[in-house]
Each structure stands twice: as structure tokens, then as C-alpha cells.
Amino acid sequence: MKCLFATEFSAARARYQTERAIRSLPIELQKDIGWPEAADTKTGLRNGVGSWAGAK
């Protein structure tokens, strides 16, 4: 059971780190690479993490 938890935690952390790195790029670059929801077009604000949080 511990191994499963560690594996899921490791995968979630890797996703978080990847998303954080991509979101640190300029919005124009995010759009160029096709990052989904790079910015909220109505307000110009970046969307928060959570689209993948807890999903399997």
C-alpha cells in the first residue's frame, strides 16, 4: 500500500513541477506550445492549478 501512495505522490509532484515550469514561461510562449488555458481571455489572469489535481 505504501508503494502505491509513493508512486501516486511522485507522479502528482512531477505534474505540479511541470505545470509550474510551463506557467513560468511568458503567455505568448505558452500559447505557441499549445498549453491549454494559458490565460483567462476575459480577465487576462492565469488560471490556477487544479485542472489535473486529484485526477487519475
Structural summary, described in words:
With 56 residues, this protein is mainly α. Helix content is 50%, strand content 0%. It has helices at 2-23, 27-32. It has 2 helices and no strands. The two termini are 17 Å apart. The model has no long low-confidence stretch (mean pLDDT 76). The protein is elongated and about 40 Å long. It has a domain at 2-32. It comes from Mesorhizobium kowhaii. This is DUF1127 domain-containing protein.
* Shape, per Cα inertia axes: elongated
* Amino-to-carboxy terminus distance: 17 Å
Q: Please tell me how large the radius of gyration is.
A: 14 Å
* Helix-strand makeup class: mainly alpha
Beta fraction of the residues? Answer: under 5%
Describe the sheet with the most strands.
none
Mean pLDDT: 76
Helical fraction equals 40-55%
The helix-strand sequence is HH
Helix count equals: 2
- Strand elements, count: 0
Report the uncertain regions. Answer: none
Describe the protein's topology.
Elements: H1 2-23, H2 27-32
Protein name: DUF1127 domain-containing protein
